[in-house]
Specification:
By secondary structure, the protein is mainly alpha-helical. Helix content is about 60%, strand content about 5%. The strands form two sheets. The chain has a two-stranded antiparallel sheet with strand order 1-2. The protein has a two-stranded antiparallel sheet with strand order 3-4. Helix 2 packs antiparallel against helix 3 and helix 4 packs antiparallel against helix 5. The radius of gyration is 30 Å and the shape is elongated. It binds fe (ii) ion. Fe (ii) ion (FE2) binds next to helix 2 and helix 3.
Length: about 250
């Protein structure tokens, strides 16, 4: 019924094809055509307007000169970073807890203990890098961070068995995958802040992937030392020698 080829402000008579009822109307100020590429352009412009209307804004304008103050940051990004710092501390404490389990005299697995302590330090350093990032913008972190007791690793059979180290490596891989996924969410939220995206991409995301690569390789090595057929005692010996290799730095 509508003729999209009319020019602006032109009076047009529009009639319904079945009822033949008609009305005279002034054509809209814009000209639409049924040309497909043009219609796509209109839809694209609408979509871009929708996206720009909802996207977070990076604020770095010259305003008043009252200092110190928060500056050159993106509110959505900053909130995401503040929230993620707790995840990094959580990972650090979890590694520390796991290290304490393997390090006690009744378990005595110095290799995996060393690795877990190093991992705890690395996670803590990630949290500190993020706090440093916030500090460059004058943004404060949270006043307190919670560590949930429920998220402490408690393997059903403890760690003093033929699969203690293997289970710990699998738990570490699961946790690192989760943290990596969350870091990608931070980077996505910080896409308007190039410096933030840079900080979280390298070194932090780079270290996540490198760490996951090493963990998976170590797990494969350990499983390779437990090739079937093997007894429970054989697996315990495999874990013992694997731990010695961890201690000497041959693995991880
Ligand atoms: Fe981390």
């Amino acid at each position: 019924m509508t003729d999209y080829n009319k020019s602006a402000n032109q009076k047009v008579k529009l009639c319904h094809s079945r009822s033949q009822q008609c009305a005279v109307s002034t054509y809209p100020h814009f000209t639409l055509t049924t040309n497909l590429p043009t219609m796509n352009s209109v839809l694209l412009l609408g979509l871009l307007a929708l996206i720009s209307g909802t996207a977070a804004e990076f604020t770095c304008t010259r305003g008043d000169s009252v200092f110190p103050k928060k500056l050159c940051y993106d509110e959505v990004c900053a909130n995401k970073v503040v929230g993620h710092i707790e995840e990094e501390f959580h990972a650090a404490f979890k590694y520390l807890y796991m290290a304490a389990m393997f390090g006690q005299y009744s378990i005595a697995r110095p290799g995996i203990t060393k690795f877990l302590l190093e991992s705890a330090s690395e996670e803590r350093s990630h949290a500190m890098q993020m706090l440093d990032y916030l500090d460059t913008r004058g943004i404060s972190g949270k006043s307190s961070y919670n560590f949930l007791q429920a998220s402490v690793w408690t393997p059903t059979n403890g760690v003093d068995n033929e699969n203690g180290i293997e289970a710990a490596l699998e738990e570490a891989i699961k946790m690192e995958i989760g943290v990596t996924s969350l870091i990608k969410e931070v980077i996505a939220a910080c896409s308007d802040d190039y410096h933030a995206a840079d900080v979280f991409t390298n070194p932090i995301l780079d270290e996540q992937h490198e760490g996951l690569r090493k963990l998976q390789g170590a797990l494969k090595t350990l499983k390779g030392m437990k090739v079937n057929p093997i007894t429970r005692e054989g697996k315990m010996v495999a874990e013992y020698f694997f731990d010695l290799k961890l201690q000497s730095g041959e693995i991880l």
